[in-house]
## 1
Amino acid sequence: MHLLENLSQPAQAMYNKMMNSMPEGHIYSQIELTELVGISDPLRLMGLIQETMNMGLVKMLQQGDELCYQAIKKEDAEKIQAMTKDEAMVYSYIESSGTEGIWTKTIKAKTNLHQSVVQRCLKSLESKRYIKNIKSVKYPTRKIYMLASLQPSIDVTGGPWFTDSELDTEFISSLLSIVFRYVMSESIPTEDDKALKEEIVYDQLSYPANYSAYPTITQIHEFVHTSGITTVELAQSDIKALLDVLIYDGKIETIDHGMTYRAILGATADDETSAEASEYDSIWSYGPFL
Amino acid sequence: MSQHEEELVVLLLRDIYGDIVATVVDTLLKYGRLTLQLISRYSKLPLATIQRVLVPLVQNRFVLYWVDENASSDNATYVASTRNMYNIVRSGMFVSFVLDRFPDTSGAPDIVKNLLLYGHIRASDYLAAQSASQAAVSKNAITLLLQRKLLTTLRRHEFNPQSDLYMRIFNRRLAAIPRSKAVSEAKREVQAHAEATEEFNVLKRVHDDINDGLVAAANGNGSSSKRGHSLTGSSPSKTVDESAVLALNHDKFAVLMRAQILVHLASQRIGKVTAAVYGQVLDCMEPKLFRCVDNTDKAITITSLEVLRSLNANIKLASAIAVRSSKKRSKSASSRVSKRQKRRHGTDDSAGESDDSMGSSNISDVESSHRDDDNEEGDEADSDDKCANNTRMEHLNFHLALLSCNQNLPFIKKVGNRGGGEWTIDFDTLTARVRELEYDKLITQKQGAIACRLLRIIRDNGRVDEKQLARIALLPPKDIRSQLTALHEIGCLDLQEVPRGTDRAPSRTYYLWYHKPKCAYALMTQAVLKTMVRCYARVIEERGRRPSIMTKLLREDVRLDEVNMLTPAEREEVRRVRGVEERFIAHMAKLDKLVLIFRDI
């Protein structure tokens, strides 16, 4: 509270108006600000802005050629006021990097601070839980920081296939096998009760050539979603990636020009080689493929 | 021709015909075209021996000869034909194939065995060597084999190398085109080439006539009438032309093996019954197919009606294809249809029934007909034949549609509606796909499923860099690299470097993986051939380890009565050697199937 108390009355009023009249984080142009506060004299307004800026309650930004202003929450302002100058500078860069995070080397280059100073600042900021260290999928060796309150973006985490910035192969393979089993169950008819009762023996069970109820990508997505296999949110494009892998594994195929999917007869869910494949078991025992 | 194939045929000839034959063939393979004197000089064998050895080689067309009509000396030159020698590997398959189709008593297997031994035989000679009753049976068998094109007739030019034949035709054609100032020399040559190619193709297809080697039975042995005009098919009144020279037709054999492979694939991908139907389709086409590769003929079509007529009555079309939906979708036929339409058309249930789109109406038709068939199986006996035939036709078309519906693996293609549906097979596309599948199977076997996944991605995307591969395959990049290099090692993949700058620094270079099927398959075939060499060498080695028993087995009296002439220990030994031999020979047959797939179909 003491930050506000240090301000003059008009400056306090301006800050309160800026905070309350628009949603948080709104950027005011000078004209907007003039209308909001009702002070037409630019010099007087400038004085007020300077006052609040000294307290770290307002941030100055540049949009094109124009200068703009943004009100900062009291708590954040207090946080920054409590920091040393270097810390505040480092913090501001980390803050501006948003959900992408920022590499320590970039911080060093931008702040022009010495390596050890940057390190010290980062350490103290991290110990206060203002920022956190994250791992990027793209650059696994870089030390990247972002605000502790934010969630890293998909670019950084690598999407649903990554757990702790590593490709979660077990998760993927279990999903692959589940999706395959589902497509398989929809691709081959099962004998119904009537057939069993009348003891009709089928040599072959096939849907007709123009059968159109093979699962589409939407259905498969829905199945994965409703089955509750995973808590990870999967988009349709993720399911498409899974299906593509299954196609490349020779387990399913697309029909209807890629609209629907069908399992290939004789394919198995597991990677174990089928009986068919072992036909050539020992072919390579002599050949130069050795 | 390849090193390993040459190695294999020399090994085979050494085992079958002995060292001298193998040496002569080896010399010919090493040095190419040679005259008698040169063979003698290089192989360091006396002339007379070589002359003796060349007789069986030429007889079997393992060695082709050429006498240049323009050359001053009349010395013949000799060229070894690897392909003809390689066919020795298939002799066992050929015999078993004929045994499957013709009973042992029909005489057909004997003819094939004799032809394998002698290379070619004049029909009259073969018949003359048999008793009258036997000869009649044999004559009949030869006629049948000729009609099936498993036997072919030989002409004089088939003992000559094709390149020489072509050059002779070309030279003759070139000489026939008059020189003139208006036509440049290059143009003359192009014209001569075009004409020669045409004439050469006619020469190559000389056996494609349906009545080749056959004469009308009543007409006697007149060879002048052997070119019948009728193209309607060989009637039973045809019989073998006794003056014809017979040989085995390996081209046709490849066609039949291809059909077997395709049917097997269909049974795996679709099902037994559809595969049986497919076999019938291929059977119907077979008389018009003469060879697998180098086929310039136009596409052959057949109609559903033709297939239906020749369809084996034992194939249970109706009960085999179960148009059963899974339980949750099948309450009754009508609800199933409406539900399906609901899926197709969104949510509107009633609209689906009225504006029957073509696809769904077909489904319901076939389903209901199939259902009727099931329910009224007992009454069917008294029902009209025509009606039954109609139902059968529907079911047949059902199977044919199944064969044609898969764009990734088009077993057949629909080209028209004549005769209840007109179909053709695009063998080039289909066999290319078979090769792909077979290659994938091999890669899976050798390198694992992951490698195969990567190969398929690369095949699908052209040139792919490692990062992209990792992204598509959903695999960590570090796992991929070892797989890719392993594939590179066996010649499956190639790597292209694309530098981003002029310095060609490795860090600033794209590495793109790509797959060249032709090259990869050729390398694979070489590997297979090499494996075959090793297999056969092993067989010979196994025999060589037991010299005493092997020499004893060669004795005439032992051969006739093995049980009594050998001691129990010896019999056990022989049994063991033969077991090993059998395993390797069977293995070679499997490998030969790969060679067939990758090279000959």
## 2
Amino acid sequence: MSANANAAAVGAPSVVDRYELRKERLNTTVRYTLLIAMGLIMLYPLFWLIGASFKSNAEIFTEVGFWPSRLDFTPYIKGWKTSTEYTFTRYFFNSFLIVIPRIIVTVISCVLVAYAFARFDFWGKKILFSIMVATMMLPQIVLRIPQYIMFQHFDMLDSYTPLILPSAFATDTFFVFMLVQFLRGIPRDMEEAAQMDGCNSLQMLWYIIVPLLKPAIISVIVFQFIWTMNDFIGPLIYLSSVDKYPVSLALKISIGATEEVEWGSVIAISVLALLPSVAVFFAAQKHFVDGVASTGLKG
Amino acid sequence: MASVTLNKIAKVYPNGFKAVHDIDFKINDGEFVVLVGPSGCAKSTLLRMVAGLESITSGELKIGDKVVNRAPPKDRGAAMVFQNYALYPHMKVRENLAFGLKLQGLPKEEVNSRVLDAAKLLEIETLLDRFPRQLSGGQSQRVAVGRAIVKKPQVFLFDEPLSNLDAKLRASMRVRITELHQQLKAAGLPCTVIYVTHDQIEAMTMGERICVLKEGRIQQFDTPSMLYNQPANTFVASFIGSPEMNILDAHLSVDGNARTVTLLGGKSRLPESKLSVHGTELAIKLGLRPENVLVNASDEKDVLWIDCEISHIEYMGSEVFAYFRVGDSTITSRLPASQATLVSSLKRGDKARIGLQLLHSHLFDAETGVNLNSTH
């Protein structure tokens, strides 16, 4: 008797379970279908870009689909050669000459400033922090003219210095703000332990804080890489000799230089210009996740 | 190896809040002292002031013979074990232990041998190549202690190091730390320990002397047995001991050497003892440990018998805590398990008779709470 009752008791929830399971599976299916559809819509321009890079001018403007009729790499080869005396090898090299130093000075200056704001008490700290945050609201374009005049006086035009130097003074306030917020979330125990161990402020920064800030620093690197790589206005204003052009400017001249624009080539180089940013993003993605998982603050 | 002397140490926060009020005490070389008190009593603040993590507003702090009020933490010869262990998450256990030594610029062999010695002492040799996130709570705790030991400090500072462990582990770590202190002493390396806790059991079992704090003031600084047997005031009396001491409103009449106490409607003569009282009639608080409350026992000298109702009973295994109601007051009795039968048949609201062994009572001033026994 009791055995039967038990069996019924065990059997009853299994029906409910099966119902719940089916509901959950349906839910998952709907959710993923929607997400995939949204993802595809967002990625469509990118797919189109890649497809179009294999097409001829005529095909680009007549065909609706993004699938090219043939896999032809001539646009890539043509585009790479450019109509100028330099190939894109030079322009990519130029881009890195701007991006890499700029990232280095950004990270150093922003970490130092964020450390000061997050961990030290000094006179006028609150006001200075507000002013810094306020400059985030300032559109970049407002700074262009005074900065241009300044660099003209410094005789630094047509060089990479105007593109790199401002970042050495932590003017990328968004990064400072981001690092300060991240630092505020790190408990001070470890710094106090380091203080007991005999660290001075700079040793503490180097041995304790920088390793803990790694995930945030990596996001600074990724953002700065992508933004600098894509920056067009900056190089356009400050650089005048073609041999110093970065990719963004070189792409523009490849549109305007000839009578008839070879859209296939322009698009092919655009695809290549995207690659470094995409690569950096995917390389760093693992560290984002790693960083979050290994903050190591478990009791 | 150093004494720690606090001379009128005070701490006032920028917002004007005075957290520590002129604390005075001396901790002898090699002594194990526990600072204990409820949360907010400034025990951690005091410890952090000794460590150098918190500034000292006024007074003088000496470690050994040196005044270290403004010395940076590393120059004070103190090592600290933090409540959350504060291990560096990006360094392996070995590097965690060696970090402070490397900063001191010690040669590599010296660093390695000290790390190994400490690891052996704490049985964490197998963990040396792990990251802190791969350690359990108890293991992290031992690494944190190890990080302090390798520095061979003059003073060890512990800031509630066991509060994040489960009860069983806490009990065993308690013994470990005490043993470690003895071991170092036996090895000729006595170290002074200041240990902060809010747990009176930890304080009683570990401390050679205990400093009971309340709201930034010392209530009593004495050995565990003195704290238990001669509490300076009602706060210490109820803070030390579990279950809490019964503290009852009473009335004392003094007539020459004869003293009569009236409480809970009963009246009894008190055994003779030295009391520092003025006047002949006064309101007092009478403190009685739960073990001095008898239940349904035979008549005994100097026992005041009172009729009451039982409120509830807690079985602890080796002993039983019984709670009785008399009017508005609750009286706790602690009985050995052998006497459990006396109360086990009783239900809430049943009548019972309890005996207060006034011979063991503590008399406190009703207003100030100060112990009236003349030794204080």
